[in-house]
Amino acid sequence: MTDNSIALRVAATLAFEELGLLSVGSAVETPSGVDALPAAVSVAFDGAHAGCLTLRVSDDVFRAIAENMLGLDGEEAEPWRWDALGEMANVICGNALPYILGPSACLTLAPPARGAPPETRGASHIELEVVTGRARILLDLAERRRQ
Amino acid sequence: MIDRSDAPAAAQAPLTVLVADDSRVMRAMIIRTLRLAGIPLGAVHEAADGEAGLGILASEPVTLALVDINMPRLSGLDMLARLGRPTARGPRVIVVSSDGSDARAAQVMEMGHGFLHKPFAPEDLRDAVLRALDAPDHDR
Fold it and tell me: Fewest 10 Å CB contacts: which of A88, B50, B89, B107?
């Protein structure tokens, strides 16, 4: 596991457990296919570095996030599901980047967008067991900009 | 589980609250958490960007503002820069952000406001509100 993957794991565990009230298990060695993780959001960021973080989750995790964040059941949570997943990605991104880029790096995060950009070679990633489902986090970091 | 036994002495009167965050789920979560924490709430206003937040602060007697940093139109930091330092008559402000950089938190606290990092436990939000309400005024 690379340092970036460790940072993603720490940030994702914090976000899923504190924000989504979902317990996180071990990292998954064999990544799931896209079909198994149908809900995806991405958060672009800019500043000292530019890049994008993508969060993909299985359907049960997708449903559980909004329900747990707002204390809602089933259909009540339906209108909130994408916003809740977006907020989860936003929090993972905001927490992971200082570990990776240093605590003094100031970045601007764009609002979460539904869907995922094409995965590029060299991007950092981690896939985790989340309760009975899975979550995959992928960080595509651009080259450091000249100061 | 939230312990309500030490409900805020400093917050006995209902608070007029502004929650400024471009994420509607985070606004809903903050308001729900304030209620669960036993913070007495009066009118609760929501804004999805900094401009709308400033408009509400100019027209409503807001006593407590919870403000995100990354927002469209006007960021939380620009909003606070226009608001100025805390005063006896102005709202107490807590910046609630997922930005984990030390630099950002220091910047906010240098402006005289509170900072709460996302994700937060309900107790963290309650404690941040109590600290903000107990903080000395800067213009006295």
Answer: B89
